[in-house]
């Protein structure tokens, strides 16, 4: 009971900035408080021959179950997403009708560096830009049809998976250095902490307060590390699932009307979650239940 009270108290302290938006937020202080919360709860856990480190959180809920971690490591030898990676590479390198490729677009020349640049806040445009959007903007700039967001076009998910795999080992580094970026962070924070749907649940209920616990047979992952391993090959879907697709699916699962995939709210949510995973290595795509 004492741990439950402490967890609830911290959860409320993390949510306090939402109660007074005019006061603004202090994102880095909040991120450090969240890291401390998880390390206080789980830092004594044995993991892979050492005590759990915050760097290990890139493995998601696998950090809480040695058997699942062993299964994950075994799956990486012959991953179920291998065909998707190969297809994503072919799509990336395939010339557009005008003879150019994705590499001709700004910032897309080095595939090893692309994934780690996103998401970011573009002050000139006044919006969060994620990799899904950047890929589509490259396509439309070359007179190609844009992909549908949120998993509705699997070719986009395959390209995202290829770029994630190329960037493995790069670290997430989201900057909040302007009023617009702070506004986007606050919007993402609000989306994460707001209860919704017939089940009256928020993202935070599962991924802060109940991280490491189970819903039926599923272990709940902590928010720290969420964005590191997407797209993920989910055995429950028997397919690659992008981060934006997962957001829509989670909201639907609590019987809420989801925000539009890659709309302002869900891009802000990705921005917020990515900031909370700053410093962690990208290791997508990854196998998940």
Task: Give the SSE layout.
Layout: H1 2-15, H2 27-42, E1 46-47, E2 50-51, H3 66-75, H4 82-93, H5 111-114, E3 120-122, E4 127-129, H6 131-141, H7 154-166, H8 179-193, H9 203-209, E5 214-215, E6 218-219, E7 232-234, E8 239-241, H10 243-253, H11 264-276, E9 286-288
Parallel strand pairs: 7-9
Antiparallel strand pairs: 1-2, 3-4, 5-6, 7-8
Outline of the structure:
It contains 11 helices and 9 strands.
Mean pLDDT across the residues is 91
Question: Sheet with the most strands?
Answer: 3 strands, mixed
CATH class: Mainly Alpha
Radius of gyration (Å): 19 Å
H/E series = HHEEHHHEEHHHHEEEEHHE
- Give the low-pLDDT segments: 1-24
Give the distance, in angstroms, between the N- and C-terminal Cα atoms: 30 Å
Helix percentage range = 40-55%
Spell out the key features of this protein.
Cytochrome Bc1 Complex, Chain D, domain 2, 9 strands, mainly alpha, three-stranded mixed β-sheet, disordered N terminus, 289 residues, 44% helix, two-stranded antiparallel ribbon
Describe the protein's architecture and organization.
This protein has 289 residues and is mainly α. The chain has a single domain, classed as Cytochrome Bc1 Complex, Chain D, domain 2 (Orthogonal Bundle). The strands form four sheets. The chain has a three-stranded mixed sheet with strand order 8-7-9. A two-stranded antiparallel ribbon has the order 1-2. Strands 3-4 form a two-stranded antiparallel sheet. A hairpin with a 4-residue loop joins β3 and β4. α8 packs across α11. The N terminus is likely disordered.
């Amino acid at each position: 009971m004492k741990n439950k009270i402490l967890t609830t108290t911290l959860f409320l302290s993390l949510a306090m900035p939402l109660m007074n938006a005019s006061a603004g937020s202090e994102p880095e202080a909040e991120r450090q408080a969240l890291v401390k919360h998880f390390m206080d709860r789980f830092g004594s856990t044995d993991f892979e021959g050492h005590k759990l480190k915050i760097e290990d959180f890139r493995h998601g809920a696998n950090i809480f179950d040695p058997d699942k971690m062993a299964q994950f490591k075994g799956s990486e030898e012959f991953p179920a997403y291998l065909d998707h990676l190969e297809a994503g590479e072919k799509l990336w390198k395939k010339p557009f009708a005008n003879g150019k490729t994705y590499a001709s677009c700004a910032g897309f020349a080095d595939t090893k560096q692309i994934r780690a640049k996103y998401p970011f806040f573009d002050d000139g445009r006044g919006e969060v830009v994620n990799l899904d959007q950047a890929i589509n903007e490259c396509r439309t700039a070359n007179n190609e049809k844009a992909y549908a967001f949120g998993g509705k076009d699997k070719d986009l998910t395959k390209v995202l998976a290829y770029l994630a795999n190329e960037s493995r080992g790069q670290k997430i580094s989201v900057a909040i250095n302007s009023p617009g970026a702070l506004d986007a962070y606050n919007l993402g924070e609000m989306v994460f902490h707001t209860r919704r749907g017939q089940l009256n649940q928020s993202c935070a209920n599962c991924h802060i307060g109940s991280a490491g616990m189970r819903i039926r047979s599923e272990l709940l992952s902590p928010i720290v590390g969420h964005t590191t391993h997407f797209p993920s090959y989910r055995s429950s879907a028997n397919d690659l699932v992008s981060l934006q697709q997962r957001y829509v699916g989670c909201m639907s699962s609590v019987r809420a009307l989801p925000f539009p995939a890659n709309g302002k709210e869900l891009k802000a949510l990705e921005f917020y979650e990515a900031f909370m995973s700053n410093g962690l290595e990208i290791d997508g795509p990854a196998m998940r239940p």
